[in-house]
């Protein structure tokens, strides 16, 4: 892969308890990964897979319904160890900036690595695009991924809560926000010659 600029747009889906009150010992585990690698403004790689949870391997009905997935799909997924090895491989490919919508993805990844006694796979910069979006537009609250892309007049890629589709949607918002930022860059003040049409001025005094 090329070195710079390189971005990894990353999205995870997690396990969830049957009720909003988490049972003792429960913590969210990654069960789906979607990632998009962008180098020099071009998508050069993408990957998606289900991931088998280890501490709570049986999905709750609430989780299966919310994410529209089955137990069989999860059982056939990659192991968490394989996921960490894959992410570390991308991290070693060169200077990489990981971009997620919100802080939850990195938080859960760190917690899952600690629980599995595995090193965190990323050494570079992480950008929380949801926070950047909030600060850029001066919003009081965080905006959801799909709502944010709708505010740009788009419906996003695929379906919500599909990890790869959400990773692509995050990338699309990133491009839109970065383009908006360029408009705010102060341009060089025009010279007096650019402000005055001397052709019209000469005509006026020639009368």
TrEMBL record:
One of its GO terms (molecular function) is 3'-5'-RNA exonuclease activity. It comes from Parageobacillus thermantarcticus. Residues 6-183 form the Exonuclease domain. Pfam families: RNase_T. This is Sporulation inhibitor KapD. SUPFAM superfamilies: Ribonuclease H-like. SMART domains: EXOIII. The keyword Nuclease applies. InterPro entries: 3-5_Exoribonuclease, ERI-1_3'hExo-like, Ribonucl_H, RNaseH-like_sf, RNaseH_sf.
């Amino acid at each position: 892969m090329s070195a710079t600029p390189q971005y990894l747009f990353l999205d995870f889906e997690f396990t969830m308890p049957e009720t909003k009150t988490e049972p003792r010992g429960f913590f969210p585990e990654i069960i789906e990964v979607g990632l998009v690698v962008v180098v020099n403004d071009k998508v050069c790689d993408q990957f998606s897979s289900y991931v088998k949870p280890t501490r709570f391997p049986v999905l709750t009905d609430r989780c299966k319904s919310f994410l529209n997935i089955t137990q069989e799909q999860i059982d056939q997924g990659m192991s968490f160890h394989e996921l960490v090895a894959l992410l570390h491989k991308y991290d070693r490919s060169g200077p990489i900036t990981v971009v997620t919508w919100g802080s939850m993805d990195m938080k859960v990844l760190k917690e899952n690595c600690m629980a599995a006694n595995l090193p965190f796979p990323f050494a570079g910069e992480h950008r929380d695009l949801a926070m950047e979006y909030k600060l850029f537009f001066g919003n009081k609250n965080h905006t959801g991924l799909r709502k944010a892309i709708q505010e740009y007049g788009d419906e996003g890629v695929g379906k919500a809560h599909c990890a790869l589709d959400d990773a692509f949607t995050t990338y699309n918002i990133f491009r839109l926000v970065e383009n908006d930022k360029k408009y705010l860059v102060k341009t060089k003040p025009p010279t007096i010659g650019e402000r005055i049409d001397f052709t019209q001025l000469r005509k006026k005094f020639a009368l």
